[in-house]
Structure formats: structure tokens, C-alpha cells
Design goal:
Protein name: YgiT-type zinc finger domain-containing protein
Number of strands: 5
Strand content: 15-25%
Order of helices and strands: EEEEHEHHHH
Shape: globular
Organism: Cohnella kolymensis
Structural class: alpha+beta
Number of domains: 1
Bound molecules: zinc ion
Low-confidence stretches: none
């Protein structure tokens, strides 16, 4: 899971803790890092959701820790793939992605058969978080 850095070296995808306002730790945020120049880029597909989360915290947040892998499905998939190996391998990520998508689709079928619109909406949001990675 790599992309090219502007310095010409490759950036490696990992899960990192992003500290906001020196008080709030957002853990397991997918970030591309370059070991040569030290540049960090939050993964494109989750940028908007990290921003929204920070916006919700307001300007004077209470100290806390937020597990981003529970907020965002893509972070969750990477988190599970990392549990299988020391670094992120595309094949583990693809497998974790497929498993999670199938789980969510199963839940969606249950929600649908129950006619639970709120649950269906939530699951649709979660499924869209998994397809957002293809946009980047
Ligand atoms: Zn670089």
C-alpha cells in the first residue's frame, strides 16, 4: 500500500494517531508517510470524515481518545488487515474488505426484511465508506 511522494520516494500507508487541539487522540487514522522527507498525508478517502469529526469536537474539546477504526469502515478494514500482518499488504486489505462488505450486506438484508429504515441508512453510509477508497 504505497504511493509516490513529491520528493520522489515512496510513501507507505499506516494507521496513525492524529492529535487534535493537543487533547484529543484520534487513533488508527489511515495516513501515508514518507520516511525520506517526513511528509504525512491523510488517506484521501477518509479526509472528509476526519474533518467532519474534528468539526464536531468544536474548538475546546475535552481530552479523550477516539478510535477511528470504529468511525470509518475503511479504517476498520485496514485495522483488521494489520491484525494479520506487521505492515499493510494489498492482499490482506482486499480480503478484510470483502469480508466486511459481505457482513454489512448481510446486515442490510436483515434491516431490509425488518423494514428498519434508520438501520438501512446507517448501513448504506458504512458501505459507502468502503467504496470511497476507489475514488482516490
Ligand atoms: Zn517524501
Amino acid at each position: 500500500m504505497r504511493k509516490l511522494c513529491s520528493c520522489g520516494d515512496s510513501m507507505k500507508l499506516a494507521l496513525r494517531t492524529v492529535v487534535f487541539a493537543k487533547k484529543v487522540n484520534i487513533t488508527n487514522v489511515p495516513v501515508y508517510s514518507c520516511s525520506l522527507c517526513g511528509r504525512n498525508d491523510v488517506f484521501h478517502g477518509v479526509k472528509e470524515d476526519v474533518g467532519r469529526l474534528v468539526g464536531e469536537l468544536g474548538t475546546r474539546p475535552a481530552p479523550r481518545s477516539i478510535p477511528f477504526e470504529e468511525v470509518h469502515e475503511w479504517a476498520g478494514v485496514l485495522f483488521r488487515a494489520l491484525a494479520q500482518a506487521e505492515s499493510l499488504q494489498a492482499s490482506d486489505v482486499a480480503k478484510a474488505m470483502e469480508e466486511r462488505t459481505n457482513q454489512l450486506l448481510d446486515l442490510w438484508l436483515i434491516a431490509s426484511s425488518l423494514g428498519d429504515e434508520t438501520w438501512k441508512m446507517e448501513l448504506q453510509t458504512r458501505l459507502s465508506q468502503l467504496s470511497a477508497q476507489y475514488i482516490s
